[in-house]
Design goal:
FAD/NAD(P)-binding domain, 366 residues, 19% strand, alpha/beta
Amino acid sequence: MERYETLIIGGGQAGLATAYELKKRGRSFMILDANDRIGDAWRKRWDSLRLFTPAKYDGLPGMRFPAPRWSFPTKDEMADYLESYATRFELPVRTGVSVDRISHNGERFVVESGLDAFEAESVVVATGAHGVPKKPSFASDLDPRIVQLHSVDYRNPSQLADGSTLVVGFGNSGAEIAIELSRSQAVFQSGKPSAEIPVRHGGLGARLLLPVIRFAGTYVLNVRTPIGRKVRSGFVLMAAPLIRTKSKDLAAAGVEHVSRVVGVRDGRPLLDDGRTLDVANVIWCTGFRYELAWIDLPVLDADGAPRHERGVVDEAPGLYFVGLLFQSAATSDVLPGVGRDAVYVARQITKAARAAAPSASRLVAA
């Protein structure tokens, strides 16, 4: 069994930022990532995706994003940046390692992946805010001839059957996919429209507003302020405001907004106004849910979400999280905010390791 001081589960932006901060503090660690390459979580997203934040805010600690400051990188450029980041700072990574279970043997954490097992003094779960795709239970009742995809599996229009498409969900993913499909077919979009950023994306107004939003999301809406604690639970459940593609853009592109999908009738999507839609495709842009049952420790609440304080798990000393929704602030799960939580968690790991070191020395001397 391989032993490490710290194991980081996940080699995305949260895991890499944490690794950088640990290395800066002289700590030993190993990153385990399920993908074949660092950055693959971004490479596997839909082809036309661009980041919603400009490059000046997309870099991780210690390395700016190599693009014009106000440009919006593609998802592949983001993936390549993460791979370059790991290479530049010589962060040790084991790819192709999918973790099945984390437990504790009374002395150390045990991380299992298939027939392989690792031991560690501490573990950082950095698998991010997005776990298992959510779809309603009635999705399986749709006519099998209807092509169904979740947004996580959508790449481009070539995956779809000829005919119209229903996009379920009115967040940013739903809006971006709907407007892309509208160029080649009829599109219906179901759900309640999100709030919208009140300026044109990428314009002067956005450049002026973005620093204000970032400041508020980091220093006002956080777990240390009364207003942050008040809005935290609702914020986690709330859809992000529309950023690039707005309701008026969808209407101008011919996307028809329909009411909420509530079930299936005769194999077709049933709306809450009683209509059924005769469509050839359904794309579920319905978000994700946590799936952390593989953490075999008493650290999850009734909804399966981790109990923690700014990523530190008191019920399992040595277990940490980075990249969760509203981990410490409203920006915790996005690129402009993940580095701040990585710093805090790396400090806690370092503090705990230094506190344990004198005890170990006294034991050896005795």
